[in-house]
Amino acid sequence: MIEAVEKRPRLPVIDIARGVAIVAMVIYHLCWDLSFYGFIPVDVGYDPGWVFFARSILFAFMFLVGIGLVLGHGDGMRWRRFWRRWLFLVAGALLISLGTWLTFPESFVYFGVLHAIALFSLLALPFLFTPIWLTALVGAVVIALHFLYRDPLFNAVPLSWIGFWEVPPLTNDLVPVFPWLGVVLGGIVVARLVRGSRVETRLGEIRPGNRLARTLGWMGRWSLVIYVVHQPLLLAVIAPLSMATGAQDAGREIEFLNSCQVTCEATGTSAALCATYCQCGLDGVIRDELWGPIYSGVVSPEEQAQLDANNRQCSALIYPELGAE
Fold first, then answer.
1. Membrane spanning segments where (predicted)?
2. Are residues 232 and 119 in the same domain?
3. d(C-alpha 263, C-alpha 268), whole Å
């Protein structure tokens, strides 16, 4: 494992695959931002279809990380190249943490995609040179343990990045070691099996020449840079537009009223009384500026007291006898 290692030809299809993954990621984040700021009605963060889409993108990214490690260092470590890329990952991860802490302090990203790639790149290095069966076995165990083991100890933020929580912590992005390191190891296994085979030769002969393929390949080569800059650029456009149009406020109010109406009617209260009750609740949230606690789930004792007082006031509005208690 020395620095002067003969470099194999680059595989354009891998760059194109990275390009497709980063385009999908940009689409997802664009729709998440539009959802958060009230431009589209679907809740991208929780809708099952969108969650599946996000997990598929993440799987592709992590699998390609493993493939990239083999392509870059499978014949011997190129330490200078490795550490240069690793420092860029760490810097990008820190910028994302800082940016989301300033923008979404209650749910900032403390161990997201770039944080995970930086750590997994280190943890996976030994498996570039261990027996392939051992790499496959460890990868399978890492994935399986995520589904087989749970402990409330890992619900806390300091340990949540490991991945054994029972209740996921409040954060806009979390890519825990279990199971996602296993996906990286899976990529390493596949790349090592293909390395030096006829399959690699045939993949190397694929040289798409159309404009779309060249564009995706270019994006794949610069995927880390695109990942770091795309969300700030999206927010720089969408957030001011939301403030100018009032889309976020309108979307929040409609979502609040609909959710409240369903919950209220489930108790057997009439639709008309529930509409009065929910409008009263909405007026209280707006008056007391309680959107943050409601959406984040992080409620201070003072805010909880205000929410309880508003609830009693609105209950007395539809059931006057409660106000006499």
1. 20-40, 52-71, 83-102, 108-125, 132-149, 177-194, 224-243
2. yes
3. 10
Domain's final residue, options 213, 243, 273: 243
Co-location of 118 and 27 in the same domain: yes
Q: Residues 107, 174: contact at Cβ < 8 Å?
A: no
> For residue 222, is it within any domain?
yes
Kindly report, residue by residue over 241-279, the tens digit of the pLDDT: 877 776 666 667 777 887 788 888 888 888 888 888 888
Do residues 169 and 157 lie in contact, with contact meaning Cβ atoms separated by under 8 Å? yes
| Residues 53-88 pLDDT 10s | 999 999 999 999 999 999 999 888 999 999 999 999
Q: Name, in order, each residue with C-beta under 8 angstroms of 11's C-beta and a sequence gap of 6 or more.
A: 71, 200, 203, 204
Split at pLDDT 50, 70, 90, the class of 206 is confident
Domain count, the chain: 2
Quick check: helix, strand or coil at residue 79? helix
- Please tell me which residue, 166 or 245, carries the higher pLDDT value: 166
What are 211's strand-pairing partners? none
Q: Is there a single domain that holds both residue 142 and residue 284?
A: no
Three-class DSSP category at 82: helix
DSSP H or E run through 130: none
pLDDT band at 2 (very low <50, low <70, confident <90, very high): very low
Token pair for 227: 């990942």
Across 136-140, 156-160, 229-233, 295-299, least confident range: 295-299
Give the DSSP per-residue string, 175-187: --HHHHHHHHHHH
Residue 78's region, left for phi above 0, alpha for psi from -120 to 50, else beta, is: beta
Q: Identity (one letter) of the amino acid at 62?
A: M
Q: What are the C-alpha distances in Å from 34 to residues 48, 55, 193, 252?
A: 17, 19, 42, 12
174 backbone dihedrals φ, ψ, rounded to 5°: -145, 125
What is d(CA 150, CA 167) in angstroms, rounded to the nearest whole number? 9
Q: Are residues 155 and 282 part of one domain? A: no
Count of positions (residues) in the chain: 325
